[in-house]
Amino acid sequence: MDTFVIAVARLVALVDKTPADKDVKAGWGAFGIFLALAVAVAFLGWSLVRQLKKTERNAEKGVFGEDDQKPKQA
Fold first, then answer.
1. d(CA 50, CA 33)
2. Is the pTM value of this prediction over 0.70?
3. CA distances from 59 to 20, 24, 28, 46, 47 (A)
4. Which residue in 43, 74, 49, 70 sits closest to 59, CA to CA?
5. Phi/psi at 56 (nearest 5 deg)?
6. 62 CB-near residues (< 8 Å, 6+ apart)
7. Cβ burial 25-63 (10 Å sphere, 16+ → b, else e)
8. What is the pLDDT of residues 1-28, one digit of tens each?
9. CA atoms within 13 A on the CB side of 21
10. Residues 29-39: tens digit of each pLDDT
11. Quick one: pLDDT at residue 17?
12. SS (H, E, C) the chain
């Protein structure tokens, strides 16, 4: 099996030539995907902060019971 994989890898290397550096560029599509991912991460962070604040408010109201309360600082 390893011999087959090595043979196929060598065959692909012979047939598929590496493009020149000037022919390779990311382009606007990749930049758009990058921006979309950045917006998604920002939205997830915003949502996490909202949920943590909501959980803190509920913990202060005693929704989770006495065992889950933070210890009081003196």
1. 26
2. no
3. 60, 54, 46, 20, 18
4. 70
5. -65, -45
6. 69
7. eeeeeeeeeeeeeeeeeeeeeeeeeeeeeeeeeeeeeee
8. 789 999 998 888 888 788 888 888 889 9
9. 0
10. 999 999 999 99
11. 82
12. CHHHHHHHHHHHHHHCCCCCHHHCCCHHHHHHHHHHHHHHHHHHHHHHHHHHHHHHHHHHHCCCCCCCCCCCCC
Q: How many residues are given for the chain?
A: 74
- Is 44:50 a contact under the CB 8 Å cutoff? no
Query: What are the structure tokens assigned to 16, written together?
Result: 């598929």
Please write down the long-range contacts of 10-13, taking CB distance under 8 Å and 24 or more positions apart: none
Q: What amino acid occupies position 62? A: G
What is the residue type of 2?
Answer: D
Residue type, 49: V
- Do the beta carbons of residue 69 and residue 62 sit within 8 Å? yes
